[in-house]
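Q: Here's a chain of 560 amino acids. Please give me its 3D structure as tokens.
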Amino acid sequence: MVKLFSLFLIIWSVSAFSGVVFSKFPKHMQLFARNNQDSGKIEIVGYVNTPGSDSISVKLFKEGVLQKRIVQPLNYISDNAAFSLAVNIHAELAQYSIKFYLDSDSLRKADSLVCGDAYILDGQSNAAAEAYTGYSSPYIRSFGAQQFDNTNIDTGWGKAEPAPQINWQRKNVIGVLGMAIARRIVEDSRIPVAVFNGAIAGTPITYHLRDTALSSIYGRLLHRVVHSGLKDGLRGVIWHQGEAAYSGPNEYLNHLMQLHDSWIQDFPAIQRVFVYQIRPGCNYDGQDIIREAQRKSPFNRSDIRIMSTTNIPYHDGCHYDTAGYRIMGEQMSRIIQREFCNYSDTVGIDAPDIVRAYFRDAYKKQLVLEWTQPVTFTSDSNGHTPSEAFSIGKSWGVVDSVKTDSAAKQTVLYLKSSTDSTTVSYTPDRFYTGTTNPFEGPWLVNGRGIGALTFYRFPITTNGTSVALNRSITSHLTVLASPNPFNKSICIHSAGVDRINVVEILTPAGQIVKRLNMVRSAVFMWDGNSIAGKKVPAGIYICRVKTEKEIATLRIVKTE
């Protein structure tokens, strides 16, 4: 009888305020997207359909302390009084709560609200990252479950699961990699983070392409983000996939661009896509082609940032243990924080990439590889030599020795005999030549131990001209351009330095189109005109930026 009476009281109290209908109200533990003013907007919208009340009001609390009270008089039209108000919360390691009042009666509340950045993490098993970690934080959130049935579609906001044992039908599981990335952002930049992990082990990229059905990987992610309220609030996507190549490695780049464009279409606030380049190993051949497609992905979309996975320890030939995923997440988190959080620790945080390859002797026995950063080989060679990491054309075992020159940002391959081959590759498809052992180095790394991006059949030039990059990253200087491609004008921005001395726009053949000396700032706007003041035709151009100590190039595209 007591239980029935209590239930009656609950039903009566709800019914007493059933005259208020909400179309927008924050959810418990919800994360609100951080804007350019480091704040997020909480909206409360609805109407009162029972006349007799004078006003509605909202109280905002921060860590239990009242911050603000907003009162709105009710104006009835045909027995309905609409209301709409908003309150901002700051992006910080603090939790807010909202209480809603009809006149003086407390009607509804939402607790543990935060403001921060949200990301999708997608791919296959190394994005799912099923390993143990005991870490969790009230400032790392997620929404819903990665997999669900018809009775478990929307399970709400919650603290991200540390995932001691993965169960993707449990809500708010983000995996060890997602936790590692989020942890560094929370602890370094002091803002909350939400992660939506949609990874499924063993899935090729075609399984992730846009399909809005709830039975699909993409459809479930889309559903979760929409119902979380962050469809227009995602910062970016983190992609780790490629080991499952049975859908065809040669189509990988096209599929990745399709997926990228779908993300931008469905989540228009996305500013960056962060791609991991996989490493040799796992189950399928053709991974060298996939890695090359991943390396080239920033050439096709200027908002893509690429990170290597070579030289990350605790690797079993396919997956990593908790410590390996933590290192992988920390490396990517620095790139993310540089893009969005005014992160200052930016020296050497990018993966070195090849700039050009050319023979420096007439006999074609000394091949020079130039890099965006100084590189050297890891000392832990696993009993193997650096020469085993390279092929000339299709031939392995033709490199006699390797020498690195950090000052010149060069690696020199000394060949056993002269060659007419026109391409060079770094790292085999999966195994050491003639074995079934996954290739585990030695690796080329920068000063912070971040592995160089691998490449497949990179062209060897005969005249030493550069192969243009869509981005240029040296140990300090990062050059970005927006919009790229462009039509009327393009803004060239250099990060990591206070000013640039010279900006040059060149054709791919090296002819100077535009030159500006003593820029003395970090930003340069090019209007698409030549030195003579005439509009240049549509096509590919190279922006070369010089400081007192460094030179960097950037591939830009002008459209009609």
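Q: Can you summarize the key feature?
A: The longest helix spans residues 322-340.
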